[in-house]
Amino acid sequence: MGDLINAVILGIVEGLTEFLPVSSSGHMILTNKLIGVLPDDQKMITFEIIIQLAAILAIALVYRARIASLFGLSRQTETVGTLSPLGKRSRRKLNLIHVALGIVPALLLAFFLRDIIKGEGFNQTPVLISLVVGGIYMIVAERLVKSGRIRTVSESMDDITYKQALSIGLLQCLSLWPGFSRSGSTIAGGMLVGTSYKAAADFSFLMAIPIMMAASGYELLDNYKYIKGDNLMFFIVGFLVSFVVAWIVIVLFLKYIQKVKLSYFAVYRFILAALFWIFVMR
């Protein structure tokens, strides 16, 4: 029963934090510490991969129409888009090149730095610093846009240019620092290069599908042997809880995105860093 309770707790934490700019890795490290999970427990490492895959499935479900349009499997690519800053309606133009430009930099860097990230990046001090630095980065991005020093030129995801997609992809490399947050680096990064908050979030979530599939799939190849019959229910419960919670979070976040500023998440990150200091590092 204890394992199933842990599965529910960790599934909720993963679902709540994977796509919000608050750092799922920071939350998982803190939660594992609080419930007494050892950092080198191979079963738990495999479990975290499984619940992350559940979160990916949830976001793929939410963006299924857009994914279909990228591969030419629906007519959505021919529909009229949203109003541009110039007041003219533009056709949907986001394509697989945009997505590739957004994900390749982080995937390449992650491949070459994998051992360093896994060895040093998940130590407590780097994660704690990353939570704070990432929060400051988000506040700076939001304030620069609000002050008018950065002009929003891409109101919707379909207005994002190749240059913006590549810039967001390069800024996504910041998320390889555990605790920084992939969604935080890309949403704030998008705003810094002239996309709206909503456009940046949409593009961030869409990019999450291939980049997380690649990362989690690669890790699963090394850890699938830990999924055994005697702990199968543990993995199933975690997967289902993570999927449901992630789906709810994504839908609600996109619905209320204009009311939830990045600075709110930044303040939360600072609070999490304080909790990290109290419960993990002391």
UniProtKB/TrEMBL annotation:
Q: Does the keyword Transmembrane helix apply?
A: yes
Q: Which GO terms describe its biological process?
A: cell wall organization; peptidoglycan biosynthetic process; regulation of cell shape; response to antibiotic
Q: Name one GO molecular function term.
A: undecaprenyl-diphosphatase activity
**Keyword Protein biosynthesis annotated:** no
- Signal peptide position in this chain? none
The record lists the catalysed reaction(s) as: di-trans,octa-cis-undecaprenyl diphosphate + H2O = di-trans,octa-cis-undecaprenyl phosphate + phosphate + H(+)
The primary site where this protein sits is: membrane
Classify the source by domain of life. Answer: Bacteria
Keywords assigned by UniProt, alphabetized: Antibiotic resistance, Cell membrane, Cell shape, Cell wall biogenesis/degradation, Hydrolase, Membrane, Peptidoglycan synthesis, Transmembrane, Transmembrane helix
Where does the sequence pass through the membrane?
49-73, 94-113, 125-141, 162-180, 200-221, 233-256, 262-280
**Where, per UniProt, does this protein localize?**
Cell membrane
* EC number, as in UniProt: 3.6.1.27
The family database entries (PANTHER family) matched by this protein are listed as:
UNDECAPRENYL-DIPHOSPHATASE
Q: Cite the HAMAP family for this sequence.
A: Undec_diphosphatase (MF_01006)
Q: What else is known?
A: Bacitracin is thought to be involved in the inhibition of peptidoglycan synthesis by sequestering undecaprenyl diphosphate, thereby reducing the pool of lipid carrier available.
Role, per record: Catalyzes the dephosphorylation of undecaprenyl diphosphate (UPP). Confers resistance to bacitracin.
Which NCBIfam families does the entry mention?
PRK00281.1-4 (NF001390), undec_PP_bacA (TIGR00753)
Q: What is this protein called?
A: Undecaprenyl-diphosphatase
Q: What is the lineage of its organism?
A: Bacteria, Bacillati, Bacillota, Bacilli, Bacillales
